[in-house]
């Protein structure tokens, strides 16, 4: 092949690349790629700070729900087999031995949001129950989430509420008199589901 023909071929190829590089379509693709990269980095940063904020908010709310002692450790819940219609989201141990369990019930009037409670169990007895997150109807379902209603669980043995789940002996299940509120039955059931799930977690994972 003649030398000058080879040079012309290379120059022609360079011209094609140059035109492609500076074409409107290439510029559009480059701009879109840059936007996607920036959006990805932004979402990553936002997710990181959102996660940190949520963890800080959770600890703050737990501190408000249980003031007797400070949290000293977090329990590993990975691999825990949740009971039906419930999820254990977190569990912590306080310096006085109390176990603070963040329990979510998927049973609720607003089932899409569910009901998430703080259930504090100390020495096998439910110390307190408090609402953390819910979207129940104001004035109706929310009545089953205030302290007056939730306080009926205080003093109940965790084993009693977890009995039918852990031991599966309905005929021998201890009698726990839990009342449901008229006009807020679904919320009342959701609360009981979350408390039972927390009690079950406590018996299975803390007492063992």
As residue ranges, the low-confidence spans are: none
Q: What topology, given as strand order, has the largest sheet? A: 1-2-3-4-5
Strand content: 15-25%
Q: Report the major sheet.
A: 5 strands, antiparallel
Number of domains: 2
Mean pLDDT: 82
Instruction: Write the element-wise H/E pattern from the N-terminal end onward.
Output: HHEEEEEHHH
Helix/strand-derived class? alpha+beta
Instruction: Determine Rg (CA atoms, Å).
Output: 29 Å
Distinct helical segment count: 5
How does this model look, in words?
By secondary structure, this protein is α+β, with helices and mostly antiparallel strands. It has five helices and five strands; from the N terminus they run H-H-E-E-E-E-E-H-H-H. It is elongated and about 90 Å long. The mean pLDDT is 82.
Task: Describe this protein with a few key phrases.
208 residues, alpha+beta, 2 domains, five-stranded antiparallel beta sheet, 5 helices
Short summary:
With 208 residues, the protein is α+β, with helices and mostly antiparallel strands. The protein is 47% helix and 18% strand.
Give me the secondary-structure topology:
Blueprint: H1 3-21, H2 24-65, E1 71-74, E2 86-94, E3 99-105, E4 115-122, E5 125-134, H3 147-150, H4 158-166, H5 185-207
């Amino acid at each position: 092949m003649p030398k000058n023909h080879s040079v012309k071929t290379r120059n022609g190829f360079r011209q094609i690349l140059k035109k492609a590089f500076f074409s409107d379509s290439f510029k559009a693709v480059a701009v879109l790629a840059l936007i996607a990269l920036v959006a990805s980095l932004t979402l990553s940063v936002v997710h990181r700070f959102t996660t940190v904020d949520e963890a800080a908010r959770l600890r703050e709310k737990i501190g408000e729900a249980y003031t007797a002692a400070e949290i000293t450790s977090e329990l590993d819940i990975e691999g825990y087999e949740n009971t039906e219609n419930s999820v254990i989201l977190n569990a912590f141990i306080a310096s006085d031995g109390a176990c603070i369990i963040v329990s979510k019930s998927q049973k609720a009037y607003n089932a899409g949001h569910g009901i998430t409670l703080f259930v504090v169990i100390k020495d096998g007895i439910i110390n307190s129950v408090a609402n953390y997150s819910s979207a129940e109807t104001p004035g109706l379902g929310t009545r089953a989430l205030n302290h007056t209603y939730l306080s009926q669980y205080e003093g109940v043995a965790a084993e009693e509420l977890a009995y039918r789940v852990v031991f599966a002996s309905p005929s021998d299940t201890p009698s726990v008199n839990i009342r449901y509120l008229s006009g807020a039955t679904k919320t009342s059931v959701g609360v009981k589901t979350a408390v039972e799930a927390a009690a079950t977690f406590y018996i299975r994972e803390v007492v063992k």
